[in-house]
Amino acid sequence: MSLKTWEQRKLKLLADFSKGAGYSKKDIIDQGTPIVLYGRLYTNYQVNITTIKDTFVKVRPGSVFSECNDVIVPASGETAEDIARASHVCISGAVLGGDLNIIKPKINIIDSSFLALCISNGQQNKELIKRAQGKSIVHLHNSDLKQVVLKYPSKRNQSMIARIFDKTDNLIAANEYNLKNALNIRGRLNLHLLT
User: Fold this and answer.
1) pTM of model > 0.90
2) Is 101 helix (H, G, I), strand (E, B) or coil?
3) Which of 36, 58, 116, 138 has the smallest number of Cβ neighbours within 10 A?
4) Ranges of H-type helices in 75-193
5) CA atoms within 13 A on the CB side of 108
6) Mind listing the pLDDT tens digit for each residue in 37-93?
7) Closest by alpha carbon to 48, among 88, 9, 108, 3?
């Protein structure tokens, strides 16, 4: 896969854009409709959001619901680096809270996981950091996202790249879990055998 064969276009030609609708942490309840709030992209960041088991709300009129393959980007945060990140929402029907920009890629051209990876880690990340505006709170608008230049290979190759990153992330998570357990066992051995 040669970089010479990759296409390059502004995101406004490759996707549609919208916004989430007004929910905040105070709206969270124990059971209800799953919701993605913008804070999730900081506290529980995932490139691919495949399940939502910890945040629920009671649906209100005017709610915005996810469609599989949406890509979400925070609209505000404390630093430009904080908000120059994206997640691919892999599930339909979750509420998308306020302060989220929603990108709906043209699915025959752009792989949503690939786009989220590029926004969070690639040249597009650096471009968004430059575009973020504000002092104590910085903002990213859909108008900023539309101007981002995306360099991309064929849809098939985008999907392959996204799968490689996903498998690597899963491997890291599994090894972090194993390391935590091994350190716990070692700590118990220290406590019982060396005291």
Assistant:
1) no
2) strand
3) 58
4) 80-83, 112-121, 123-131, 142-146, 155-193
5) 0
6) 988 888 888 999 999 999 999 999 999 999 999 999 999 988 888 888 999 999 999
7) 88
